[in-house]
Amino acid sequence: AVKLGMTLGELDELAAQSESHTVINSYCTVFAGTEVLECIKSGKEPKDIARGLFRSIASRLFEMIVSHDGPVAATGGVVAHCGSMRAALNEVLADEVLLPPLPQFAGAFGAALMAREGQDVAEPVGQRSAPPCGSSTKEGCRC
Q1: Radius of gyration for the alpha carbons in the chain, expressed in angstroms and rounded
Q2: Is residue 21 situated within a structural domain?
Q3: Could you tell me which residues come within 8 angstroms of residue 33 by beta carbon, excluding any fewer than 6 positions away?
Q4: Which residues contact 36 (CB under 8 A, 6 or more apart)?
Q5: Is the residue at 138 inside a domain?
Q6: Which of 27, 89, 110, 125 is the most exposed place for a label (fewest CB within 10 A)?
């Protein structure tokens, strides 16, 4: 959003106007920012760049999923308030991503349930971390 000189809300509105998307290949935000600038300089439509950014994020998220034999749910503030992110997730999955009520509070609800059951909410349970972006993109990047 910053590279295009707008807020996330404005980026969301712009992406919603696009019927196509510009492919953004970089996983690292530093390289993606450079790639966005290159797209702007080459005359790509800002709305297509915006939609491409959301698709790039969605693609990266689904690469981190081990498997999804059943439905996939998305949580967090971005999916709660950004229709273009939800649309990109649906497109990349080629199915509808489930959105729970108040997805921006899902983590807090889960922590509250764990605390109520006496579990230590400070310890990660079943987390899977993504590899450093340098392992799948340009050498040397450790964002």
Answers
A1: 17
A2: yes
A3: 2, 3
A4: 3, 4, 24, 49, 53
A5: no
A6: 125
